[in-house]
Write a structure and sequence with these properties.
Helix 8 packs across helix 12, helix 10 packs across helix 12 (198-217) and helix 11 (178-191) packs antiparallel against helix 12 (198-217). The chain is 57% helix and 7% strand. The chain has 14 helices and six strands. The longest helix has 45 residues, at 288-332. The N and C termini lie far apart (102 Å). Strand 3 (271-275) and strand 4 form a beta hairpin. By secondary structure, the chain is mainly α. It folds into two domains: 2-232, Rhomboid-like fold; 270-314. Mean pLDDT is 77; it is low at 343-347 and 355-361. 23% of the residues are buried. Strands 1-2 form a two-stranded antiparallel sheet. It is a multi-pass membrane protein.
């Protein structure tokens, strides 16, 4: 109840921030966010958690609670998870939905969550088969949008793989390494008891399922399927040192799926075509929409870099101008004696002025007066 009081106390501020985040988004995005908030309020009841979440033992026959695969995703028991879910869904509505469309976005949402429920259940069935402990079947409750968050990170990696997130002493963190990094962090937090074990399982399931869908099955507007670009291969999720090992592991299963017709083979040919504008080169796995998307991203990054450079140049010029003005003020503040002729009145010539020259030599001599 203490958490509920904290939530109600901060409700006006959260409503203001969420309204700014969810502005100009589709009704589906707003519906998902509202349902997640309602699910968090209902999660204070243990009976509701048992009914709405996926329990591996009850998802199988004879119980066969398939309806829980459609309700587990909006049930969160921690406030920080609700905030992360809403922020992620809102960013998807502004970044991914304009590129894919509302129907494709909802299709991606449903397929990912439905697949995460079954794949996570399969993980716990394997653990139960290895250990024989029934607690992995009936005491585990799978709930939340962790799998969908992983799927979103994979989609962002596909759209903007080299976008810089943060610079660290160990190197640059980009969208390319985000899914695997969060999975490692989730495993570490689970090992020290700071996170539930279902979170890394759901994150890993969402990463694998979303990559399979985006790599082989997603249909594009030009009639093609998937994204066979080299920078979106499965080994590209791992560091460069481990990529040969990963390719050796996933290579045989991929070839088997290709022979069964479930996956597309990786193209290895470069097509050359003559056009009025010149020679057109088609690289393997690079579709026209991908090239246009990456061109827009490159132009945006170049524009930001040029604006940053011009701002630095303007600040440097402004600093130089300020320093020059300070020097001029210092020079004009010094007193410089000047000789002026006396004013004349009514055409009367003024008497000549006299200038006294003083010799500063070692031998003092009388001053010399000279007519000027």
């Amino acid at each position: 109840m203490a958490a509920l009081r904290v939530f109600s106390r901060n409700l006006p501020y959260l409503r203001q921030q969420f309204a700014a985040l969810l502005g100009n988004t589709s009704p589906s995005v707003k519906f998902i966010c509202v349902v997640v908030v309602i699910g968090y309020i209902l999660s204070f009841s243990d009976d509701v958690v048992n009914v709405l979440s996926v329990t591996p033992g009850y998802l199988l026959p004879p119980s066969f609670q398939l309806w829980s695969t459609f309700t587990f995703w909006f049930l969160e028991i921690h406030l920080w998870e609700v905030i992360i879910d809403i922020v992620t869904v809102g960013l998807c509505g502004k970044l991914i939905e304009p590129l894919w469309g509302q129907m494709e976005m909802m299709k991606f949402f449903i397929l990912t969550n439905f697949g995460v429920a079954f794949l996570t259940t399969f993980y716990y069935l394997v653990i139960f088969a290895c250990t024989g402990q029934t607690s992995y079947l009936f005491d585990i409750h799978v709930h939340g949008l962790a799998g969908y968050l992983a799927a979103v990170s994979v989609a962002v990696k596909q759209i903007m793989p080299d976008h810089l997130l943060i610079k660290t002493p160990l190197g640059k963190l980009t969208n390319r390494s985000l899914p695997l990094l969060i999975l490692i962090v989730a495993i570490i937090l689970w090992a020290i008891g700071a996170l539930e074990g279902t979170y890394p399982c759901m994150w890993g399931s969402g990463t694998i399922l979303s990559w399979i869908y985006l790599r082989f099955w997603q249909r594009h507007t030009n009639g093609t399927r998937g994204d066979m670009a080299d920078n979106f291969s499965f080994d590209n999720f791992f560091p460069t040192v481990l990529q040969p090992v990963v390719r050796a592991i996933v290579g045989p299963p991929h070839r088997c799926l290709v022979r069964l017709g479930l996956c597309s083979p990786s193209p290895r040919r470069v097509h050359l075509a003559l056009s009025p504008r010149g020679v057109t080169i088609s690289m393997p796995g690079v579709e026209p929409q991908d090239m246009e998307r990456r061109r827009q991203i490159a132009l945006k990054a170049l524009s930001e870099r040029l604006s940053k450079t011009s701002e630095q140049t303007r600040q440097k010029n402004l600093s130089t101008k300020v320093n020059m003005d300070a020097v001029r003020k210092m020079q004009t503040s010094q007193v410089i004696p000047q000789f002026t002729e006396p004013e004349t009145s009514k055409g009367i010539q003024a008497p000549p002025t006299e200038a006294t020259l003083v010799d500063l030599g070692p031998d003092p001599t009388p001053p010399i007066t000279k007519q000027s």
